[in-house]
UniProtKB/TrEMBL annotation:
Residues 38-96 form the HTH tetR-type domain. Gene3D superfamilies: Tetracycline Repressor, domain 2. InterPro entries: Homeodomain-like_sf, HTH-type_TetR-like_transc_reg, HTH_TetR, Tet_transcr_reg_TetR-rel_C_sf, TetR_SbtR-like_C. This is TetR/AcrR family transcriptional regulator. Residues 59-78 bind DNA. Pfam families: TetR_C_43, TetR_N. Keywords: DNA-binding, Transcription, Transcription regulation. It comes from the Bacteria.
Length: 211
């Protein structure tokens, strides 16, 4: 047998006739390259997440240096500074949303909600720093697209708490989002000092009262 892919008619495909051994080897090597690209992307996002908290404007060359990659590699993933910052924020939102079901799987609903609020504090820092560094239109778009998914994550935690009888029945996801949105307005010193207490007060406020 020739080893070429066969069309349903039994004829060798034109693309297969053109493919030589070198091309087959290149095709087999493609998945590792994609894995490397994904790894580079993750490294870039981690570095940018840390560097965005430092004073001054985030520099793409500083991100590339922190990752140990060339600037060309970075620009292939993120052509502009705003592209990178927007993805840092989206990545943070994705992790925050994913944390809700993971915490519910390991904890009682009210404890899961409290643990999720701890994660919200980290998200608030990123939101504050990214939104301060991007254009106003970009920050509005990011906020608009993240509000619904974050609201759904909050609602899943509240539903579980209401079902368990530990969260007050009138609590709404919008209430929680309005309250936690203030965290992103605090600087690091105030967030460290007040954040845990504010979130603890919020958990107590959501707790179902006993008759």
């Amino acid at each position: 047998m020739s080893g070429y892919p066969i069309q349903p008619s039994g004829h060798v495909s034109a693309s297969a006739r053109r493919s030589g051994p070198g091309e087959k080897e290149a095709q087999l090597a493609a998945p590792p390259r994609r894995a490397d690209a994904q790894l580079n992307r993750e490294r870039i996002l981690r570095a940018a997440r840390e560097l965005v908290r430092e004073p001054g404007e985030l520099k793409l060359n500083a991100v590339a240096k922190a990752c140990g990659i060339g600037q060309g590699t970075l620009y292939r993933h993120f052509p502009t500074r705003e592209d990178l910052l927007a993805e840092v924020y989206r990545h943070e939102v994705d992790e925050l949303i994913a944390a809700a079901p993971e915490l519910l799987a390991r904890h009682e609903p009210l404890d899961a909600l409290a643990a999720w609020f701890d994660r919200v504090a980290a998200y608030a820092r990123i939101k504050r720093d990214v939104f301060a560094a991007v254009e106003a239109g970009t920050s509005r778009d990011l906020a608009a697209h993240s509000l619904g998914p974050i609201g759904d994550a909050v609602e899943s935690l509240l539903i579980a708490g209401r079902a368990a009888g530990t969260v007050r029945p009138d609590a709404e996801a919008r209430d929680v989002i309005v309250l936690i949105s203030w965290l992103s307005r605090l600087d690091d010193t105030e967030l460290d000092a007040r954040g845990p207490r504010l979130l603890s007060i919020l958990v107590d406020g959501l707790r179902a009262t006993r008759d």
